[in-house]
Write a structure and sequence with these properties.
About 45% of the residues lie in helices and about 15% in strands. The longest helix is centred in the C-terminal third of the chain and has 19 residues. The protein has a single domain, classed as Ribokinase (UDP-N-acetylmuramoyl-L-alanine:D-glutamate ligase), CATH 3.40.1190. The chain is an alpha/beta fold and about 220 residues long. A six-stranded mixed β-sheet has the order 3-4-5-6-7-8, sandwiched between helices. It has a two-stranded parallel sheet with strand order 1-2.
Length: about 220
Amino acid sequence: MVRILCPPDAVAVIAPAVQAIMLTPFSSPEVLGREAAGSDAIVIGPAAGLEDATIANIQALALSGAVLVIDADGLSVFKGRTAELFAVLDRDDILTPHEGEFERLFPGLLAQGRETAAIEAARMAQATIVLKGARTIIASPDGRIRRNENGSAWLATAGTGDVLAGMIGGLAAQRMDSFDSACAAVWIHSDAGERFGPGLTSDDLSDVLPKVLASLWKG
């Protein structure tokens, strides 16, 4: 079951765009925390805003016990304040930065190389790191690391990373290990991009993903 939790003034914008997803408004971080209680996984960050309210919302969600998948604004808002982010994370949580967001959280670390940087970031955050790029690196706080080799150039367009965060959250919600959820979602995401090919937009991925999943099921 998927729910969108949003501020009240966003309801009128989101409601016409969804049908099979429940929409729940919240008026404060405390209400958000109560609404999120019992969730298996929560994705936060895309279009969340670079305000203190986003930090307060993430802090409230961290108390839910759900796996947190934090992306986009949910990462950038902690620039210069990483200690506040690390304080609410646990080893089941997943951060999904592209290189720009990674640099805001871990300044200078990329100079060591992407793999070394991802490993060190996972150790510092004590969470799984998905360092997105042509060859996405997934690193776990326990030292596991994977490099995705089937990256697709067609995914280099706005919004596809948000879809990836949702895919990771969907697998984590089914109680898949966080590191395995990230690895599987990254591979499936890339395969979907390659299957669609030129002209891909993030909206197209939802049409292609069932075909990827069906091929894996048959396999």
